């Protein structure tokens, strides 16, 4: 069959003589979202970053299944135990994934807990197994894990902390708080930014002047000290859930200014376009013109802005929790886990307690790369 379509190109361009190919017709008839997706797929780094973020957010849903230990599980015989290496061969024989047992000795000169591998003790890694009991999303009790230590052994892939808790399991549980706080915070930020920026851009005049002065005042304050001051004002008697939403609200309320200015500048130019004027002449109210005609025309840019704003909120929560002004135990987040790294002596002796900083770096970089790809894909002139 021919690679050309029967519709003549004159349907799109009266001055053209050659017929459209199927690929050209597919391009001309594509929607804005299809064009954006095709451009995004060509950005390999953005696609890899998107896959990483998708996996991280999927782990939020099944954190209890991914973690080899329950959140509150303690191994008091293995306080500050180092990470155990995964082995596959023992004395030249393939056994499968396993770890060697640990021997413990307290160095009386340095008072340091010293662990050594005992190569005579083989502890296989179990998969799809029964392990520590947990309450899945506070709905029902279960004990199923994707992988577990041997029944009489240990599996500390990232070591343990000062209470003998598995660091890897706590990082996986902390993902749930650290990643969702960015999403909920960006919802607050978007509601405020789109509302204020939309009103300023559509009406202009004294409303625009008032909002611009307010934005300038907010942006004139140093961001981190302002976060710290507002976080310190939260009552210490609040429950962990209230503190969580309080921190989320603080991050969202202080992050909307950049979005508001972006929305304002877009609406200032779009409100004079023919489609906006036609909607007004047909009797559409300002709220409908903004919501149904103006905002959808640059929704892709808003999505790209969101992906670039979420990392700042994750870093904000991590910084506040690290300084003791954000989330507090029993809530577990990456920032809460990093509070143990405040003791430089502990970091020097047991450097694996710094590992919660790795997922923070990975997620922030992934969001930035993915946001750059979305921004390029959403730009019609790129």
Brief rundown of the structure:
By secondary structure, this protein is α+β, with helices and mostly antiparallel strands. The chain is built from 15 helices and 5 strands.
Task: Tell me what you see in this structure.
- By secondary structure, the chain is α+β, with helices and mostly antiparallel strands.
- It folds into two domains: about 70-165, no CATH class; about 170-380, MetI-like (MetI-like fold).
- The protein is built from 15 helices and five strands.
- It has helices at about 20-30, 30-40, 45-60, 65, 165-205, 205-220, 225-230, 240-255, 255-270, 275-280, 285-295, 300-320, 335, 345-350, 355-380, and strands at about 85-90, 95-105, 110-125, 125-135, 140-150.
- Strands 1-2-3 form a three-stranded antiparallel sheet, with no helix packed on it. It has a two-stranded antiparallel sheet with strand order 4-5.
- Strand 1 and strand 2 (about 95-105) form a beta hairpin.
- Helix 3 packs across helix 5, helix 5 (about 165-205) crosses helix 12 (about 300-320) and helix 10 runs antiparallel to helix 11 (about 285-295).
- The protein starts with about 20 loop residues before the first helix and ends with a helix.
- The model is unreliable at about 1-10 (pLDDT under 50).
CATH superfamily of the largest domain: MetI-like
* CATH-defined fold name of the largest domain: MetI-like fold
Distance separating the two termini: 35 Å
Q: Which architecture of the largest domain does the CATH hierarchy give at level 2?
A: Orthogonal Bundle
The radius of gyration computed from the alpha-carbon positions, rounded to a whole number of angstroms, is 27 Å
Order of helices and strands: HHHHEEEEEHHHHHHHHHHH
Helix % is 40-55%
Beta-strand percent range: 5-15%
Low-confidence stretches: 1-12
Structural class: alpha+beta
Anisotropy-based shape: globular
CATH class of the largest domain: Mainly Alpha
